[in-house]
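Consider the tokenized backbone below.
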């Protein structure tokens, strides 16, 4: 499919306040996980289940961190049209 025929149209995501709150919670979980990494003891770092929990928490935190900025930029408001010219 050739996208040149669409001209200057672009897709604007519609991010609602509930999605922004959920992304904020995921980001906060990532921050808490980062603090847990910094304050863990050497014995904690040998526990495979603890390391899995940390890896999962960091991944969810990164996902939340990348989801939040479009909600606060001007182009991603819930009232924005799907396509703009």
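A designed sequence for it:
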């Amino acid at each position: 499919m050739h996208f040149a025929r669409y001209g200057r149209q672009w897709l604007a995501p519609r991010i609602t306040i509930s999605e922004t709150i959920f992304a904020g919670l995921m980001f906060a979980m990532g921050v808490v996980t980062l603090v847990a990494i910094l304050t863990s003891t050497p014995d904690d770092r040998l526990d495979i289940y603890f390391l899995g929990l940390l890896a999962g928490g960091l991944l969810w935190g990164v996902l939340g961190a990348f989801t939040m900025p479009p909600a606060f930029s001007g182009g991603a408001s819930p009232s924005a049209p799907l396509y703009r010219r």
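The chain has a mean pLDDT of 78.
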